[in-house]
Amino acid sequence: MKHASCVFLVLGLILATASAQSSELRTFTNTQGKAIQAKLVGTAGDQVTIEMAGGQRFTLGINTFSPADQEYVKKSSVLKFNGPNDKLDPAVVNEVVGLPLFADAMLWQTKADEVAGKLELKKESETKVSSSFRSYPKDTFRMFGARPYSVALYAADGLTTNLSLVFANKGDLFGMDGENNNRVDRNTPKAQALAILERAMKADVAAITAKLSEKLGEPVKQRFGDGEARDTMLRWDWRGHSILLREQEGEYVGVELVTTEVSDAGGKVKMTGDKIIRDRALANVEKRPNGDVVISEIPMVDQGPKGYCVPATAERAMRYLSVPADMYVLAMAGETNIGGGTSVQMLLEGVRSDIRRKGRSFDSWQSEFKLKDLQKYIDKGVPVIWGLYSTDAFNDLANKRTKDRQDMTDLTAWKAKLAETNGAATLRKEKDQGHVVLIIGYNKETNEIAFSDSWGERYKERWITIPEAEMISQQEYWVVGF
User: Contact at 8 Å (CB) between 35 and 26?
Assistant: First the structure.
């Protein structure tokens, strides 16, 4: 009951800030006597979904409400979920999924870590406003009757917002088996590899469609997405959830789970206001006693076993400024090669218009590595995408430098050590080691920069001197800003 009372208190605070009124609003009271104004949206089992005047939705157990309200809910049968599939028990839909994903409460009103646990997903990142969970499942793992190569769950304020699964795709082609269980390897001729990809994609689409249609009926076609990523999907609905199947020819097969509201809007979501983003970014600038200036709260995206550093880094930069992004969808704009290699120029130029359409700016330039060019962005809380050559020598140096500076308190002693261990002369531009990272910080006194790789939390902050960085720099930079 303490939890229910807390929920009603939070809803009451939300109501106090809402100016819109509706004739459908009524007073609901919980068993503790707390009252709020809301309208009844739907029921599923013993779960009740209500909506505030401002549009926020909450799903609560029916026992949360007063006896009078419980009676009202039971009599309001016309407001129950009344879609063609909504009478299906969660167990039936879970049979389609292949896992116990759904319960009476909608995913969107369920804690993200609880949903992630059902899918055996590892937490990928967590910031003050968002979190993500991701896994690259074993080849025996199945969902919707097919093998997903990637499963990602996104959340805001601790609650699930959407789920993204990628099945047969060009980036993971070398993990696929072809006819007669002949595994594709890097010696497979391109035409043969693409033929195997096409067969794998067709097989996944057929399996997923059959699995969903068996219980949820025939799908409807749905235009979904924005700009270059907009295409036609197959859609099935169940109790406030839309299950969308996408086949991008020659690229990948994906399934997305989103709210029916997002699906009805064609995938378009309301963007966070510019002032909120500016203030939030500035608040993320951390100024440390040793002179380090570092941006915090940047979501991590683990690119996994593929050469997806470009789309993964772009996703991080975009999500940091509340622009929805998925690295697999972004990879299409970069003309992903077989096995995952992506052109940074093609990808970032390909999403330029999409970023600007969603209210953010996009800048790029070429130059030598200059701290003043980077500092003006870092000081505003905006990371910079940097093209470099990620050689073994460079990574060994960066790892050692980062470890050594953890105990750095005496700037004079540290600057002397940097002079002694200057590794610039040992670094070379190895053109086959192209990579991108986020520059997230600097120390003006020590002439160092901090950067972050899309390789997981262990690599979220590493340090190198500017002369060393220049030795392996491609001298190209991009910024998703405001």
Answer: no
